[in-house]
Specification:
Elements (H helix, E strand, L loop, with lengths): L1 H14 L11 H87 L5 H10 L2 H104 L10 H6 L18 E4 L14 E4 L4 E3 L4 E8 L6 E7 L4 E10 L6 E2 L4 E8 L2 E10 L2 E3 L7
Antiparallel strand pairs: 1-2, 2-9, 3-8, 4-5, 4-7, 5-6, 6-8, 6-9, 8-9, 9-10
Helix pairs in contact: 2-4
């Protein structure tokens, strides 16, 4: 009777620290789902960025078309100004020819009507001619000279006006040339921006495709992992002895202070604490130990229930049932060195750590009597 009372007290003492454990849930599957949620969020951000880039590209294209229309209009104005300058130059050339022709006609007229090509001959004529003829000659000569001077003056005025118009058109042409240069510079900048936007848009498209592939991979990993967890929860190790459950309870691993303890599976920093809130607000139900690839060791004596791959990443999961009935799960191994149904001892190497959800390290869970417990306080 005394022995039975001692056994019951000891059993209650060992069970007390586990009463606060979280209910059973698919922790690893939740991890994958959270990664999928983050990947979905990133995909939406990429899609939003793609829409914004497409919008910017459309705006650049519209602005470029506008600048091209304005450039075409300025080029047309420049062509009109060049044509007008050419016409003025032709008119000035015609005017110069008119002036020369008029002078020649006046000279020929004087020579044809009055055979006095020089001043001495004209003076001799005036001395010998009668009064009426002298008067007529002088009047005619005065009229011709006056008309000639007036005509030449008009031609000069027209020439000056044409020169002023040519100057104005040249100034306008210079202005248009500068304007064309500015539009061409702006068009080149818009073309460069369009090219950069095209490059960004193509890169975002590539990122979206990669993210979609990553999501598909994570979904496959989640599906496979859920199958493994469901399978592991139903597995039981083959009886290796005739010990009763009560006997097994008495054989729980303990220290000199009679407390349960677990050997730490790998060294490194615990970046995912049991019960700690994650990005989505839900708590960790195990611990994630960040570490470079290293040997993974069994937390206690037991029997291997599972040593398999999950998902498409090549990562592996090991499930061990210990002599006290608890189970430990090791997730994210790059390789395993134990087989199903094999016996392992505490700190025996069971595999090599790899990556868990894209991060180097090992994810570790501890289940006791169907309840997930915080393993960190029991690490030794």
């Amino acid at each position: 009777m005394m022995k039975l009372t001692k056994i019951l007290c000891y059993t209650i003492l060992l069970s007390a620290p586990l009463l606060q454990a979280a209910p059973v849930n698919d922790t690893k599957a939740k991890q994958v789902r959270q990664e999928i949620e983050r990947a979905n969020k990133k995909l939406k951000e990429h899609q939003s960025a793609q829409k914004q880039t497409a919008k910017n590209l459309a705006n650049i294209q519209t602005e470029l078309k506008k600048v091209q229309r304005e450039l075409n209009e300025v080029v047309k104005q420049q062509q009109d100004a060049t044509r007008k300058i050419h016409e003025l130059q032709l008119r000035m050339l015609d005017l110069q020819n008119d002036i020369a022709t008029t002078k020649a006609k006046i000279s020929r007229l004087l020579l044809l009507n009055y055979q006095y090509p020089n001043q001495s001959t004209a003076a001799l004529f005036l001395q010998q001619a009668d009064v009426n003829e002298k008067s007529r000659f002088l009047k005619y000569t005065t009229y011709i000279n006056r008309f000639n001077a007036h005509l030449i003056e008009q031609l000069k005025e027209q020439q000056n006006e044409l020169q002023e118009q040519e100057k104005v058109l040249e100034e306008e042409q210079n202005r248009l040339n500068k304007l064309i240069m500015r539009y061409q510079t702006k068009a080149r900048e818009l073309g460069k921006n369009r090219s950069q936007a095209d490059t960004i848009n193509r890169q975002i498209g590539i990122d979206i495709k990669n993210q979609e592939k990553h999501l598909a991979k994570l979904r496959e990993e989640e599906r496979s992992l859920l199958e493994k967890i469901n399978k592991l929860s139903k597995l039981k190790s083959k009886p290796s002895s005739t010990l009763t459950d009560e006997d097994k309870t008495l054989k729980q691993p303990k220290t000199a202070s009679n407390k349960i303890y677990l050997s730490r599976p790998v060294s490194g920093s615990i970046q995912g604490q049991y019960g700690q809130k994650r990005e989505d607000g839900r708590p960790w139900n195990g611990v994630f130990i960040a570490t470079a690839p290293q040997a993974v060791k069994a937390a206690a004596d037991g029997t291997v229930l599972m040593a398999e791959k999950y998902g498409t990443s090549g990562s592996m999961v090991i499930g061990i049932e210990h002599d006290d009935g608890s189970k430990t799960v090791y997730v994210g191994l790059s390789r395993v060195s134990v087989a199903k149904d094999s016996r392992v001892t505490r700190q025996q190497v069971i595999g090599q750590s790899g990556e868990y959800l894209g991060k180097q390290g090992l994810y570790f869970e501890w289940l006791v009597n169907g309840v997930r417990a915080n393993p960190a306080p029991y690490f030794k």
